[in-house]
Structures are given as structure tokens and as C-alpha cells.
Amino acid sequence: MNIVGRISEAYKLKQCAESPRPEFVVVYGRRRVGKTYLIKEYFNGRFSFYATGVLRGKTRDQLRAFNAALKQYGCGEKSDPKDWFEAFGRLRSILSSDKALRDPGSGKRIVFLDEVPWMDTARSDFRVALDYFWNSFASSVQDLMLIVCGSATSWIINNILSDKGGFYNRVTRQIYLAPFSLAECEELLKANGITVNRQQIVELYMVFGGIPYYLNLLDKRMSLFQNIDAMLFEPHGELYNEYDHLFESLFRNHNNHIRVIEALSRRNYGMLRTELVECSGVSNGEGLTKTLSELEQCGFIRKYRNYSKREQSFYYQIIDPFILFSLKTKRDKAIDRWSTFITTPAYYAWQGNAFEIVCLNHVPQIKGALGISGISSAEYSWRSSHSDPQVQVDMIIDRKDDVINVCEMKFSNEEFVINVDYKKELNHKLDAFRIETGTKKALFLTMVTLNGLKTNEYSSMIQNVIDGDRLFM
Fold it and tell me: Does residue 310 register a pLDDT over 60?
């Protein structure tokens, strides 16, 4: 196997392959995160049956593609199945044959259905037929392992994992693939012969996130800036149209998703639902609720509560680095190269916001650096409602040991320097936070900055300093 990272996920696949009972495994996660690669690489492509959905294909296209796969694995039927019940009936015949291929290591019959959300076209009987296939046949075959996979995370969650019908309690194992951490990105880049230092890896993460597919496109002969230009700004670059393709491949009616994402990109710390309605033009109803839920399930946005507001008022914020970078650069038609972007005020605004997102995606590493991994905590952001000037805190770590870490994230190419004005700003934040929240807990100022903190007459006010290396833990 040639698998980088994914240690726990590979172990789960191993457990299921060696299990003495039938297994229904669901693998899901953001598009391009490496789901298909993991499964194919782990089993070395030795499946009893493998088929994948067809992007934007109609029911007849899906059945035609499925039937082509059936023929590859020994089905003698020439005509396409008339519906999914017939298609899964043919699959059952293949799996029941003595000639059915088996995984050499476990002896199990492995069935891998990839991109199943694409198979489930409008008004088709795919879900009902899949349900019937599992409950009437596969669930009784002790040496069978069914793996279903999909990038449309919301479809997987709503139609299989949270289903109250035929799939209820049928899934034996679910495997969620998150984007790579910085440490995993470093491991992948080394495996690919990419020579970069840790600051450059953080900068790569700020653009591409921890998405293995994007990182695998990097050309080791070119610099970071050259790679970004070649992939994102060249009309024939591999990722030139990736932003649009992301939404088209995940959501059937994706216009609302794009409108919501583009509205959220205008405010770094996010928006309340009422603000989002006004800014995006999407009606405040069930459609918006579904759109926000789907974007959150796919890992593009997060929903968080302002620490001092006890009522159910949530903010929605973009946390996908690639989407944020695409919006900040694609919206401005004058930006056609990286060198053009870094000369604009928008670059510095993006840089600070993007580093905050890196930190928000590495909360376990931050807690580890603070030595509080074993302490229960909740993480929030906070915005003042009354202070003048108004202030906000990037991240609050509210701990069960009566301490709150008030975290500031600052991107800097050198050691970060606290001057007299920033010292006053920090003291103002602490005072406003204590007054508005009424907390009695100890407040620890915590600085997360790429190259550490420069020691001077003001730096002693910081209780904890976390540099970029600690984010790689």
C-alpha cells in the first residue's frame, strides 16, 4: 500500500475486512479528500465488484455505466437493466457465483460503490433498490463487505447515516475523511519530493487546505508561487475552474450554495442568519436551512455561537481555505497572477483571515501545545456587543478547569511584535470580554503566530505562545 496518513481510517478498513460478519461501510468526506484513493489503494483494486456514479448523468446513464461494470465482473446480460432492482439483482448473481473475486488477504467479497449520490438521480429507485439488496441478501452473507462512498456528504448523512427507514441501524462502520492536518501535508509533500519549509507548508495550506488531490498536483520543479499561478490562474490550469466544479458536483441546485458562500466571504468572522438573508438574497426559510446544513456537512463552513450570547443566535463562517482563496482572487478580475494579488490590500486581509482558518482547523494541536489535551473544553469565537471600539476574539477555549484561553492568531513572516497600541487593544479586549460575559474564570492571553513572539517590554502580558512548529504536532 502507498498510503500517506489515514492511519486510523486504514485500521478501520482492516477491522471490517477481517470481521467474521457482513459489513456495510460508509466512507464520506469533502470532494478531492482522497476517499476513492484510500479504498482502492488499501484493497489494491481487488474488488468483487466496483462501479462509480456518473456526474450529472440521468438514470439511464447511471444504469448503463453500472451495467458496463457488471459485464467486467462476469455478467452475461447484454442489455442495460431497466431499473435499479434489476441492476442489483445482476450484482447478486455475480456475488453468488463461485467465480466471484475475493480479497486475497481476508477472503472477503468486497463490493465498492463509488459516488453513490450521483447514482441516486431524481425519481429513480436507487435508494430503495440498494436498501433491498442489503437487507434481502448482503446482510446475510458473512464474508461480504459493502463499501459505499460519496463526496456529497450531505446526501450520505441524510439518506444513509441518518435514515430512519431501510438503512436505519444497518451501517456497521462509518469512516469520515477529514482534510489532512499540517503534519500529514508535510508527510505527503516529502513523499512527493517537494522541498519546502514549514512556513511554506502553512502558506500552501492557506491556499489549498489539507486536500491531498490539490497537493499532489504540485510540480517539484517550480516554486510555491509558480505552482499557484500555473494551477489556479492559468486558463488551462488544473484548478482554474475547480471552485465552480466543487458546487456543481455536490449539489443538484447549487445556485443558493454559491450565493451563500459568496455572501459569507465578505465578512471574515461570519454572519448571523438574518444578515446572511439580507446579503445573499436567499429567502429565510427551509431552503436556506438546507443550504446551510449541506455546506456545513461538507466542511465548507462552520456554525458557531457567540460566547456571550446564550440565546440560539449562530454565526456562519467559511472555514475551507481553498474556497476562501478562490473567492478573494476570482472576484477581482484584475488579479490574474499571484504577483498581482500580493500587491493589493486584499492580500493582507486574506492572509490574516486564512491563517485564522488554519488555526481553527488545528484546535487539537493548539490544545496539545497548551498541555490541555485531556481537559474538556468548548471552543467559540466572540464579538463584543457594546464596547467602543467594537472588538472580537478569534477563538475562545473555555476550559473545565476554570480557565479561558483568549486566543489571538497573527500571521507574520518574522517574530510577531507587540507594540504599545496593540497592548492597549489586547487589554481592551480582555476588559470588554470580562464585563460582557460576566465570567469569573482566569483569562490567559494566548498568541498563535507563525514565527513566535519577540520578547520586549509588552510581551510578558502573553501567558502562552504557540509558534508554527507546534501546529505540526
Answer: no
